[in-house]
């Protein structure tokens, strides 16, 4: 039926119809392109949404793995800190034992040094006493000799015979005792 109608139309009318059909076709093509783009855009969005969901799921997996890694690291660090603390305590205990031993040795050595110094001081004191007695005895002897010579230069001075001095008159004893504070003939027990 459409063919019969087209035969009756003139050429100009036919060209006009063809022209309008072409315009419709172009519009339809443009609209078709727009719809295709919108469809692709929606598909892309849907794809992205799927990718986002997948990415979120992967991200959750990564977060869980990261949390496990953090937990393992924390446990490792805590274990390391505990070991270091134990090592520090052990070193401190060993240092305290060593310090106590060193202190004990030092106290022992100090005691030995003090004992040795005391013994040496006692020896020096005894030696000094002996030297003082010798010097005192020598001074007494010289004082006695000087006194005897002062009294009578011609008289002979009594000499020690053993542990006893020859008998000296009591006047002279008193005089020598006044000078020296002690008569040479007196024993230590009599003083």
TrEMBL record:
<feature type="region of interest" description="Disordered">
    <location>
        <begin position="147"/>
        <end position="191"/>
    </location>
</feature>
<protein>
    <submittedName>
        <fullName>Uncharacterized protein</fullName>
    </submittedName>
</protein>
<keyword id="KW-0175">Coiled coil</keyword>
<feature type="coiled-coil region">
    <location>
        <begin position="18"/>
        <end position="45"/>
    </location>
</feature>
<feature type="compositionally biased region" description="Basic and acidic residues">
    <location>
        <begin position="151"/>
        <end position="177"/>
    </location>
</feature>
């Amino acid at each position: 039926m459409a063919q019969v109608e087209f035969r009756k139309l003139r050429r100009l009318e036919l060209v006009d119809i063809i022209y309008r059909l072409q315009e419709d076709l172009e519009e339809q093509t443009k609209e078709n392109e727009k719809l295709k783009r919108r469809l692709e855009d929606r598909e892309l969005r849907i794809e992205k949404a799927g990718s986002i969901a997948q990415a979120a799921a992967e991200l959750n997996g990564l977060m869980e793995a990261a949390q496990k890694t953090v937990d393992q690291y924390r446990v490792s660090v805590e274990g390391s800190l505990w070991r270091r603390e134990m090592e520090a305590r052990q070193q401190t205990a060993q240092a305290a034992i060593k310090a106590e031993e060193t202190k004990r040795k030092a106290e022992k050595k100090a005691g030995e040094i003090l004992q040795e110094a005391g013994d040496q001081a006692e020896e020096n004191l005894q030696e000094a006493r002996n030297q003082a007695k010798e010097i005192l005895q020598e001074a007494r002897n010289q004082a006695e000799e000087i006194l005897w010579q002062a009294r009578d230069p011609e008289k002979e001075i009594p000499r020690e015979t053993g542990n006893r001095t020859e008998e000296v008159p009591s006047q002279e004893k008193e005089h020598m005792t006044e000078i020296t504070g002690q008569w040479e003939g007196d024993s230590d027990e009599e003083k």
